[in-house]
């Protein structure tokens, strides 16, 4: 099963190797190389697993881990670091890091540890928003217990918004999540069409538009 991964690593060669390896196996990897941006990103977007380097510009990995735990307490964090002393390890577990790898490490081991973390997660099969229910395992959506037919892209957009209820998601984040690697300008206008169709099917006031560039599930 492919996972949505956030890779926080400022060493370009290491980051590119990890990203390429995991994407070849079908995983979605968003790479961030700056501590400040990573710290803000995790406040507004969720991921299945976060791979976190400790030595980062401006904001260190420990501070980012604390932010992750405050907003996404169940998201697994795998620490990647050159540090290996006992006091370092104790510091990682103080912020509830789920696992760690000491650099340099083998990419096969990294993926094996990612799989182990995923297996330990409590699986959330269903998302609920007012009278709308999204079944992630069956890829179906229901309103008042009647199934609503959605295209794959419509389902993926709705799933992303429902996973982040109460959080404003930008157009760019949605496009990068749903249309990985496709031309941005081509997909930008398509997003408006999909959002319009989703609103028509589940309720026109269900998705709030904020300043034309951000979207959020809006509870009445």
What layout of secondary structure does this protein have?
Layout: E1 4-8, H1 12-24, E2 28-32, H2 35-44, E3 49-53, H3 61-71, E4 77-81, H4 86-94, E5 99-102, H5 107-120, E6 126-129, E7 132-135, E8 140-143, E9 146-148, H6 152-163, E10 169-170, H7 171-178, H8 184-202, E11 207-210, E12 214-217
Parallel strand pairs: 1-2, 1-3, 3-4, 4-5
Antiparallel strand pairs: 6-7, 7-8, 8-9, 10-12, 11-12
Helix pairs in contact: 2-3, 6-8, 7-8
Structural class: alpha/beta
Uncertain parts: none
Oligomer: single chain
Strand order in the sheet with the most strands: 2-1-3-4-5
Give the C-level CATH assignment of the largest domain.
Answer: Alpha Beta
CATH superfamily of the largest domain: Response regulator
Task: Report the count of strand segments.
Answer: 12
Amino-to-carboxy terminus distance? 35 Å
CATH architecture of the largest domain: 3-Layer(aba) Sandwich
Main sheet properties: 5 strands, parallel
Proportion of strand residues: 15-25%
Arithmetic mean of pLDDT: 86
User: Which range best describes the helical content: under 10%, 10-25%, 25-40%, 40-55%, 55-70% or over 70%?
Assistant: 40-55%
Report the CATH topology name of the largest domain: Rossmann fold
Q: What's the structural domain tally?
A: 2
- Radius of gyration computed on alpha carbons: 18 Å
């Amino acid at each position: 099963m492919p996972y949505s991964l956030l890779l926080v690593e400022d060493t370009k060669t290491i980051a590119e190797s990890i990203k390429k390896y995991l994407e070849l196996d079908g995983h979605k990897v968003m790479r961030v190389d700056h501590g400040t941006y990573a710290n803000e990103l995790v406040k507004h977007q969720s991921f299945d697993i976060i791979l976190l380097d400790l030595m980062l510009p401006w904001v260190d990995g420990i501070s980012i881990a604390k932010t992750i735990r405050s907003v996404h307490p169940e998201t697994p964090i795998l620490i990647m670091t050159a540090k290996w002393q006992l006091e370092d390890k104790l510091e990682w577990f103080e912020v509830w890091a789920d696992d760690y790898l000491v650099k340099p490490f083998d990419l096969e081991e990294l993926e094996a540890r990612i799989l182990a973390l995923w297996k330990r997660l409590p699986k959330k099969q269903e998302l609920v928003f007012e009278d709308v229910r999204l079944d992630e395992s069956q890829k179906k959506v229901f309103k008042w217990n009647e199934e609503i037919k959605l295209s794959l892209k419509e389902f993926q957009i709705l799933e992303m918004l429902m996973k982040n209820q109460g959080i404003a998601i930008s157009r760019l984040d949605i496009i990068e999540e749903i249309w990985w690697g496709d031309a941005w300008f081509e997909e930008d206008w398509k997003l408006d069409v999909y959002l319009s169709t989703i609103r028509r099917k589940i309720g026109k006031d269900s998705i709030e538009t904020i300043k034309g560039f951000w979207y959020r599930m809006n509870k009445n």
